[in-house]
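Worked example 3 (structure in, sequence out).
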C-alpha cells in the first residue's frame, strides 16, 4: 500500500523541474502511484505552477492515462 500523498509526489516533481527529462520521468511515475481521483489535483498544480507550458503534453496524459510509459 502506498502511504505517500499526492502532495509528496508534487514536491518531488517541483524538485525535478530543473531538468525536463527528470521531470517527465517522475511525472510518469507519479501517474502510476496516485489514484484516478487525484489526477485533478495534479492537473491544477501543473496549471498553477505553469508547468503545463514548460513541459507541454503532460497535462493531456492526465485526461487519458493509458500507457504512461509511452513517450
Amino acid at each position: 500500500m502506498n502511504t505517500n500523498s499526492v502532495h509528496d509526489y508534487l514536491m518531488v516533481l517541483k524538485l525535478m523541474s530543473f531538468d525536463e527529462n527528470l521531470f517527465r520521468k517522475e511525472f510518469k511515475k507519479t501517474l502510476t502511484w496516485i489514484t484516478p481521483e487525484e489526477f485533478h489535483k495534479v492537473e491544477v498544480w501543473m496549471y498553477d505552477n505553469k508547468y503545463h507550458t514548460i513541459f507541454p503534453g503532460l497535462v493531456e496524459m492526465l485526461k487519458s492515462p493509458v500507457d504512461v510509459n509511452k513517450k
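Notes: Residues 44 and 50 are 10 Å apart (CA to CA). The mean pLDDT is 86.
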